[in-house]
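User: Is it possible to get a 3D structure for a protein together with its bound compound? The compound here is adenosine monophosphate. I've pasted both below.
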Amino acid sequence: MREIRLYNTLTNRLEPLDPLHPGEVRIYTCGPTVYASAHIGNFRTFVFQDILRRFLRSQGYRVLQVMNVTDVDDRIIHSAAAAGIGIREYTDKYIRAFLEDIDALGIEMPEELVRATDHIEDMVTLIEKLQQKGFTYTTDGSIYFRISKFPEYGKLSKIDLSGIQPGARVDVDQYDKENARDFALWKAPKPGEHFWETRIGPGRPGWHVECSAMSMKYLGDTLDIHTGGVDLAFPHHENEIAQSEAATGKPFVRMWLHAEHLIIEGQKMSKSLGNFYTLRDLFAKGHKPSTIRFLLLSVPYRRQLNFTEDGLMQARSSVERLRNFVTRLKAEQFAAGSNREVERLVETAENEFEAGLANDINTAVALASVFDFVRDANTAMDRGTFLEQDAPRAVAAMEKFDAVLAVLADRDDETLAKLGFSRPNQRMPAAEIEALIGERIAAKKSRNFQRADEIRQKLADSGIVVEDTKDGTVRWKYK
Ligand code: AMP
Ligand code: ZN
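Assistant: Yes, that's possible. Here is the predicted structure of the complex:
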């Protein structure tokens, strides 16, 4: 197996992946907090995790990925109360929307998608363990983790604890480094709030304990990889480490991977700032699922992704270029034989694609190798040096790339229709257009220009614009 190196936030170094269970990588992913629809910033992180798992699988690993759904936290409790319904009812609709969204984006379902409210018992057991080991104290019915009892507190986010007052507490789920304090594992019920009656008293779990309990339940005490956006490193992941390692005495996570933010006009896209687009906002503006997926995956995960309209347009034409190339590969007639040069192009592309991803999931390098290949193969086709037996090899390479990228198969219209975004007028289906384009290329090649013109006219009459590009590929789009 090729060595895969990933950047570990815990050590601030690139490290080789070395799973605890040979051949299997166990990953925990902090999932959505379902108090509103996820925005495309969230999906930047989820798409990164999808690329990671797809790449690992393409390299022959089994993947066991657990993603939680936070369906109880401060914001959910307040929003559900404001809507006058229970938290389960309130969160159900956002979970459904999330599942539709990940499907639209071609994000594979994790092996386990687990709801926090189905795991209260596991959280209670973990808190009891921490109580027995003396890491907690109780004030007014709420149970806190005493960070001064865990000397390694701060090792992930590298915070300086020297100014921290022992015993000072924080009750909210989200807070910043300046407010590093003892945090709530279990919160006593407030009037009118949803609570559970348990062995450790009535109340509800804090946000952090949820991920510790669920990750260790499904993946064991020590996980290979834990992922999330950079905003989660502190306090969420720091607190997860403290709770888990204090309870088990073992390392909790071997590699922490954090995705940088998607930003818009210089600011993090976030629900609280209100500067966000949901997927459906973008579909309503006419953008396709594959365009958004491509845009989100195109920037390596440790770089910020600046979201712009221009970026969307480029992503759209990149996907079209890849799809048109595969159409050409399948439709065009090539002279018999195979060309060693083309074979070498395929090998180089496959090798560089994998090497790019193996180097900390560098999608920019991986994509560059794909587009270089598309350009060079198109040139070979134009020159007549691309031969019949080269085509299936090139198609196989594109399929290999797409096992990770997942943008080639055109599910866009189907997905949009499913979500109620079908376009009003009946359009010629993509497959039919591509078949006609293939026929037109073949007609031009055999110098049957009359037929080629007829096809161009037919496509134009159906509202399809065909563009012959300089490098010999054919692009098309709906007018
Ligand atoms: P949440 O639903 O807020 O818990 O977030 C779900 C995931 O999205 C977490 O991994 C966050 O770190 C991540 N996230 C939130 N905002 C952004 C953003 N603007 N760009 C990238 N990831 C984000
Ligand atoms: Zn989490």
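The pocket of adenosine monophosphate (ligand 1) is lined by residues 30, 32-33, 41-42, 44-45, 228-229, 231-232, 259, 261-262, 268-270 (CB under 6 Å). The two ends are 47 Å apart (CA to CA).
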